[in-house]
Amino acid sequence: MIKDSIPEKIFGRVNVLLLILLSLVMVFPLYYVFSISLTDPREYLKGGIILYPRGLTWDNYEYLFSTPLFIRSIGISAFLAIVGTTLGLIVTSSLAYTLSRKRLLGRKIILLLILITILFHPGIIPNYLLIRELGLMNSLWSLILPALSSGWNVFLMKSFFDSIPASLEEAAVIDGCNDMHVWWRIILPLSLPALATFGLFFAVAYWNVFFNAVLYINDFKKWPLQLVLRQMLIDSNTSAGGGNILEEGQMVNPQSIKMAAVIIATIPIMMVYPFLQKHFAKGVMVGSVKE
């Protein structure tokens, strides 16, 4: 067994120390927001840095979950994340797998057209005109359909499918499988790392959808969570942001309510990641190494 030299040991320990410090720097803002969300409004108004919840209270969370607009926005964001991620994975994986098969007629032309969409983006106004002409204005589908896939995702997943030996497909065909069976029973089970990675990317993007919602959604009843948070930051006296007094007479600080809303908006994605972590570690290398 080869022992590390003294410089290597010092280098390793310094790296560990730097990573710990970097982790603390990244975690502290979230912890600070969480502390404020649980702090009693009277204690918060005293000022100062809140390193731990003062006068622990759950009133801010109770108030948010008693607000119809906020509850509705969580449901809308969940719908966008679930439906958008599912459809996005189906569209991206099926298109990428099809383009990875060299027997496809016009394959190079299709790849060139997809490449053009990466190099030349139409811009905001053409996208807006397209959504309007399709009759998708003020519809949740205007937030799902335009983001179902992208040229970049297709190329990355295609590279992953290219790394799968063609002999597996040939063996499945000999056993009587058609193209759909090969894709569903052979290719997709082998593609779990890639699917988990892109699924996480899709879920985060749909859960955090904001700009497209500003452009296409006018009805506040259809606002996703991020748009409601934006409105709370603009005006703390809206129905989403709340006033200064609860029905029971307990004082509520708008800033604390905003912090509680931020925590609620962050938790779902943080809960999903641990279940995908084992696949995500492999999937981040999609297309980077080709055997």
TrEMBL record:
InterPro entries: MetI-like, MetI-like_sf. Signal peptide: none annotated. The keyword Transport applies. It comes from the Bacteria. The keyword Transmembrane helix applies. The chain crosses the membrane at residues 12-34, 69-97, 109-131, 182-207, 257-276. It is a multi-pass membrane protein. Residues 74-276 form the ABC transmembrane type-1 domain. Gene3D superfamilies: MetI-like. It is found in: Cell membrane. Keywords: Cell membrane, Membrane, Transmembrane, Transmembrane helix, Transport. CDD domains: TM_PBP2. Belongs to the binding-protein-dependent transport system permease family. This is Carbohydrate ABC transporter permease. It comes from Paenibacillus mendelii.
